[in-house]
Amino acid sequence: MKIQFCGAARTVTGSCYFLDTGKYKLLVDCGAFQGPYEVEKLNREKFPFDPAEIDYVFLTHSHFDHCGRLPVLIKQGFKGKIIATQPTRDIAQVILLDSARIQEEDYRRYKERAAKRDSGDDDYFVPKPMYHKDDVNRTMEFFKVYAYGESLELGDGLEFRMRDAGHILGSASFELWVKNAEGRARKFLFSGDLGQPGQRIIRDPDMVREADYVVVESTYGNRLHKSKDDTVLELLTILQGAAKSKSKVIIPTFAVERAQEILYELNLFYEKGLLDKNPVFLDSPMAIEATKIFRQYPTFYDEDAKRLIEKGDDPFGFPELQFTPTVDDSKRIVDAPAAIIMAGSGMCTGGRVLHHLKNNIEDSNNHVVFVGYQVKGTLGRRLVDREKTIRIHRKNLTVRAQVHTLGGFSAHADERDLRYWLRGLGHSPRTIFVTHGEEQTALGFAANIREELRVDTYVPNLGEVVEL
User: Fold this and answer.
1) Cα 269 from Cα 277, distance rounded (Å)
2) Who contacts 214 (Cβ-Cβ below 8 Å, separation ≥6)?
């Protein structure tokens, strides 16, 4: 048996692991690379395996860096099954359709601009779309959905079980039991992205008791999150100050989970009378659609969210909230003197948030509030790193708005949470592979785990094949 690390190796995005058992060829995730151009161009490189030979894809969750290349896999010959929870399947469709739309629109604008200049634009290049809407719809036909907790046999020598990863709605860790050519069984555990305990809406991650080989994420493997209570109080203080000065608050928003969690908090703020009745705009068609999906699956909520619903409260709806699905709706926000604007994308790599930043970033009264991880090379990371000048839509802008980073809202486990989850395995793993983290973070976390658990840890390189 062998495993190949085809993404998220010494980097945070592009999650994709290829497991060759000798009898079955399996993928865990098939995500897109995100960040600077030299990283994103990896999305267009040939897969280091034949997609037509893959029997199953185990999809841990629906974030783009975990599902973003599924349509490419199918276009290149995949004929197997994509195994996931129902919310993961539904949210993945929304995210992939949005990706197809953005790719098509960006390419069309590039072609129009290049045609006007009678040549290519030296500092502006957009490749052809990797896939289109029809490719996404076809991808959905390959999904087969299952519930958490039940161990199921897929074929002779292959068994799996999904456990709640506590990251976003429907996210899963996968346990795989695989027999090798000699008939010996080995258990693999793929963490997916693990959530931090105590999140709003989402349940805490399930603990797993043993495994032979573990692939674990390390996004926040070198730091601790601020407490959730302190983070919520910090958000409230920012919003109260902005309301008093009639300023705008721009929240670059991840459409899935983070948008819904912030809506949940805002609902409580307004219900308790802690904020002035200034409008809140959810200015992201994808986040609006994801919120509709969240409402469909209350059985996946934690107990606090379920109790809110039982009391007749909608965690994702309150009088001050306005959905702005169309471009015209979005443009009208410009005239709002004081507002909270939640707009995608969460790392400011595209979408409507760029227009809001362009219109508001040079006003020192305004606020930009980051509530999620910012990958190196993204505009969001440059703002978090306090760069004084940024470029949006080919225009240089001076950053005068107040920039805040609220780490406690992260949907990822921090170092303490990851260690706790791994301790549940005891000393059973032969090897723990540390992935899905920036290189120094992954290396440091692997060293700490090796020292604490006294088990072999390894940080693979991108594309590396490890014989098991």
Assistant:
1) 10
2) 188, 189, 190, 191, 422, 425, 429, 431, 432, 433
The whole-model pTM stands at: 0.91
Rg (CA), the chain: 22
267-270 long-range contacts (CB < 8 A, ≥24 apart) are 267/313, 267/314, 267/315, 267/316, 267/317, 267/318, 269/236, 269/239, 270/318, 270/319, 270/320
> Do 233 and 339 belong together in one domain?
yes
Q: Are residues 405 and 421 in the same domain?
A: no
Q: In this structure, what is the dihedral angle of CA atoms 221, 430, 81, 85, given to the nearest 10 degrees?
A: -50
47 and 195 co-located in one domain? yes
CA-based nearest residue to 67, from 154, 175, 146, 143: 143
Could you tell me if 349 and 281 are in contact, meaning their C-beta atoms sit under 8 angstroms apart? no
Q: Could you tell me the residue range of the domain that residue 454 belongs to? A: 2-223+411-467
Rounded Cα distance, 266 and 444, in Å: 37
> 83 and 200: one domain?
yes
Residues forming beta bridges with residue 398, ordered by sequence position: 389
Token pair, residue 80, equals 């197997």
My answer on whether 209 and 90 are in the same domain is: yes
Q: What is the CATH number of the domain that holds 238?
A: 3.40.50.10890
| pLDDT tens digit sequence for 202-261 | 999 999 999 999 999 999 999 999 888 999 999 999 999 999 999 999 999 999 999 999
Give the strand pairing for 280-283 and 465-467.
Answer: unpaired
Instruction: Give Cβ neighbours of residue 62 (< 8 Å, ≥ 6 apart).
Output: 84, 87, 88, 89, 91, 92, 95, 168, 170, 256
